Amino acid sequence: MALAKGKLPYDDQQLHNTVYEHYLSHQTTLRDGLNSLREKGELLDITLIIEGHIFRAHKAVLSACSDYFRAMFTDNMLEATQNEICLNGLSANGFDPLLEYAYSGYLTLNLANVQDVLAAASHIQMIKCVYTCAEYLQSQIDLDNCLDIATIAETYSLETLKVKAYRFISGRLMKFSTSSGFYNLRPVQLETLLAYDFPVDCAEADVFSIILSWFFHVDNKLDVHTDYARRIMKYINFEDISDRRFYSILESFFQDTNDQWQIIRNIIQESFLQTRECLFSSPMMDPLLNSRGMEQAILSIGGFGGSGLTNEIDYTFTKRRKWMRLTTIPHLEQCNYGTAVYDNELYIVGGCFNQCLEEHVHPFGFKYNPRFDKWTSIAPMEMERCRFSLNELGGLLYAVGGSIDADRIGTSICECYNPARDTWYRIQDLPARISQHAGASMENSLHSKLFISGGIERDWSEICLATVYCYDTGLERWTTCAPLPTPRADHVMLSRGNELYACGGWTSVDDRELVDTIDVYNAEQDTWKPLTKVPTPRFHAGITLVNDRIYFIGGFQTDTYMDEERNLIECYDIENQQWTVENEYPEHVSEHTCITLYIPKGRDDKELYDFVQ
To answer: Which domains does the chain have, with CATH numbers?
Structure first.
C-alpha cells in the first residue's frame, strides 16, 4: 500500500523495540552460525599450534575478539599470509577457554585454569577476558590464596584486584600472620600492605609485633633488613602503642640477638621516639581501637528530618565537611533511644515507636560495627524505657532513668550492660524518677564516675530539675553533686578531662525557655560556672565534642516544625574561646543524637545531598 508522506507505519518506541529485537536475534544467529562452522570444520583458514596442541579457527573471529590477532592478520605481517602458526608464550590450557569464548561468548573458569587463562588473555590482548578473570579471582579470595592473588594482580597490573586482595589480608591480619603464607610476603609486599592503610583486626601493638616476627623469620641479608626497617617503621602508628607495651614487645624479640641485630633495634626505637616527640601530649586512644585505615567521623543518628521520623544515620569525617549516608537502624522508625560507643561499636538501645497511633516503649538493643558495616542484636534491657541516658564507663554501658510507658511515667531504676557477656543487671536506683536528663562518664586512674544532670522529675508533678547525681562504680552508690546553674531538660552533657559541659536544652516545664549558656563543671572543686553564651540557643540539637570543639548540629529554636535553624551547625573552640559557623547540614534535623566514631576511609558512600533533593 502507499504510505502517506511523512508518516511511518509504527510509532518511534515500537520501531525501536522491533529493531532491538532483530539486533539481538541477529547476534545469536551470527554467533551460533560461526560456532557451527568451527565444529564442522568449514571455512577454517588458520591453524594455531600451542604446546603441541592444534587449534583451528577463522581469522575474522580471532581478529574481532583480539587486538593481538587483528594486528597479526591485517598489518602486513608475515603471519597474515600463513595458514599455520606456532604460538609461543601461551599454554594450551589457557588458550582453549578463550577460543571457546570467541565463538560462544562464554568463558569457563575455575581455580585450576584461571591463571593460565589470565596469562593467555593478557598475551593476546583479550581485555574483557582479563577483567573477567580478575572478577573471578576476587570472588575466590581466602586465607590460603590471598597472597597468591595479590601477586597475580601485581604481575598483570590489575589494580582493583590488588586492592581487594590487600584489603582482605588487612582485615584478617592476625589470622594471616599465623599462616605459612605470611612469611612468603616479599619486603615490597609487606610495605604495600602497610602503606594501603586498610582497617585491621587487631591492635596496633599487635601489628608491630607481627612485623617484627616477619623480620626474624624472613631469610634476607642484614643490610636488606636494615633498609626495610627504615622504610617499614614509618607505617607503624606508634602513637597508638603505649611506652610499656612498645618496650615489652621490643625486648621479647631483641633480648638474645647479636650486635648486628641491634642496628635494627636502634632504628625501630628511633622511629618510636621520633613519633613521641611529634606529639604535644600523649592522649592514648582506647587500646581496643586501632585507627589504622579508619578516620574519625561525626555521626548524626535518627531524629526528625525533612520527611519526618527517620532511622537513617549520616556521617561526616571530622577533617572534611561532606555529609554522607552511613547506615540505617534495623528497627521500626523510632526515637528517644539511648546511644553509646564502646570499642568503636555504636550501641542503640531502647526508645519508642508509633504503631496504630499509639506510642510503644521497648527494651531492645542493637550494635553497629563500622569496620564490617554490620548490625547485630544485643540482649534486651530488663526494663522498657525511652528518654533515658546511656553511657559507657569502664567497658560497661549504664542505662539510667527514663520513661517506661506512653504516659511518660518516670523511673529511678538503673541497669548495666556487660558487652563481653551480653547481659544486663540492676545497679542501685537513682534517688529520683527522672527522664529527659543528660549523662556523662568521667574516668581516670583514680576513679570511674557516672554523672546525671537535670531532666524532668515525673512523680506527682512535672518539674524541670537542676539536680546532679554521681555514681561511683567503685563504691556502687549515688551521691549528690553541686546543682546546675539553671535547671535543664533535653540537654547534653559532655566529658573532657576533669570537666563536664552542660549544653543545650530548655528550662521551665510550662513555657520551655531555652538555656543559652554552656556551663562547665569542675569535678575536683564540685563547682559550676558559665563558659560561654550560645549564639543560636536550641533544644533537641545534636551536640558532640570533637578535639576540644563542641558542635551544635540542627535542633529547634522554637516549637515551629519549619524552624529555619534546624540545619544550622555552630562550633565552639574551647581552647581559643571562639564560636564559628560551619557549613549547613544538608537537611533540617532535630531530636537526633550526635556521637563520634571511627569509620573506614575507603567507603564509597553517596553524599547526603543526593538523598534529600
So the answer is: 28-140 (3.30.710.10), 202-278 (no CATH), 294-493+585-610 (2.120.10.80)
What is the rounded CA–CA span in Å between residue 518 and residue 498?
16
Do residues 302 and 335 make contact, with C-beta atoms less than 8 angstroms apart?
Answer: yes
Look at residue 465 and give its three-state secondary structure.
coil
Closest by CA position to 120, among listed 157, 94, 92: 94
Phi, psi at 277, each rounded to 5°: -70, -30
For range 141-148, the mean pLDDT: 94
Residues 299 and 595 sit within 8 Å (Cβ to Cβ): yes
Number of H helices, E strands in the chain: 14, 36
Signed CA dihedral, 44, 48, 54, 60: sign only: negative
pLDDT per residue over 359-373, tens digit each? 899 999 999 999 889
Average pLDDT of the chain, as a whole number:
86
In a 10 Å sphere around its CB, with 0-12 CB exposed, 13-18 middle and 19+ buried, how is residue 113 labelled?
middle
Query: C-alpha distances in angstroms, 47 versus 53, 55, 84, 552, 579?
Result: 10, 6, 5, 74, 79
Inter-residue contact 340 to 397 (CB < 8 Å): yes
Instruction: Give the Cα separation of 426 and 240 in Å (integer).
Output: 35
Contact, 468 vs 448, CB < 8 A?
Answer: no
* Crossing angle (nearest 10°) for helices 187-195 and 146-155: 90
**CB–CB of 345/338 below 8 Å?**
no
Phi, psi dihedral angles at 455 (to 5 degrees)? 100, -170
Cell triple for 587: 537537611
Distances (CA, A) of 230 to 31, 186, 191, 205, 530: 58, 16, 11, 18, 51
H-type alpha helices, 156-203: 159-171, 173-176, 187-195
For 522-533, letters b (16+ CB in 10 Å) and e give ebeeeebeebbe
DSSP 253-317: HHTT--HHHHHHHHHHHHHHHHHHHH-SS--PPPTT---TTEEEEEEEESSEETTEE--EEEEEE
Contact 322, 374 (CB under 8 A): no
For residues 53 and 62, what is the distance between their CA atoms, to the nearest angstrom? 17
What's the pLDDT tens digit per position in 223-254?
Answer: 667 888 888 899 998 888 888 899 999 999 88
As a residue count, the chain comes to: 613
Burial of 197 (0-12, 13-18, 19+ CB in 10 A): middle
The pTM of this model reads: 0.76
Q: CA 114 to CA 152: how far, in whole Å?
A: 11
Give the DSSP H/E element, type plus range, for residue 401: none
Question: What crossing angle do the helices spanning 243-254 and 259-278 adopt, rounded to 10°?
Answer: 170
Phi (first) and psi of residue 297, to 5 degrees: -135, 150
For β-strands 46-50 and 84-86, DSSP reports them as parallel
Residue 529 pairs in a beta bridge with: 520
Cell of 109: 573458569
Task: Note the pLDDT of residue 33.
Answer: 64
| Assigned C-alpha cell, 548 | 576540644
298 with 596: CB under 8 angstroms?
Answer: yes
From 383, 475, 398, select the one nearest 441 (Cα to Cα).
Answer: 398
| 3-state secondary structure at position 169 | helix
Q: Residue 9 burial by CB count (10 A; 0-12/13-18/19+): exposed, middle or buried?
A: exposed
